Amino acid sequence: IFAETSGSSVQVSAQSDFFQDLGGDSLSYLELLSAIETRWNITGTAASPAPLSTPAVAAQFVLRQLDAAKK
């Protein structure tokens, strides 16, 4: 999702920064948030206390959201 929404052909790692490493901008970041919400059927990515700027941070957020939905 990170590579697709940033339009980057750079290899993406867990620590790749969406803006600095992949060249994403604010509009593509909103597309990233929407893609994450759609793929995992969650909400609240825009309200995350920390930017979901790396795959690792985004994965932690998704896991917390999915875990919270189970409770």
Any overview of this molecule?
The protein is built from three helices and no strands. It is an all-alpha fold. The longest helix has 16 residues, at 55-70. The chain starts with a helix and ends with a helix.
Key phrases:
globular, mainly alpha, 3 helices
Question: What is the secondary structure topology, with strand pairs?
Answer:
Blueprint: H1 2-6, H2 26-40, H3 55-70
Largest sheet: none
Radius of gyration: 12 Å
* Order of secondary-structure elements: HHH
Helix segment tally:
3
* Unreliable spans: none
The number of strands is 0
Kindly name the structural category: mainly alpha
Shape: globular
How far is the first residue's CA from the last residue's CA? 27 Å
The overall pLDDT average reads 93
What percent strand? under 5%
The proportion of residues forming helix, as a percent range, comes to 40-55%
Short description:
With 71 residues, this protein is an all-alpha fold. Helix content is 51%, strand content 0%.
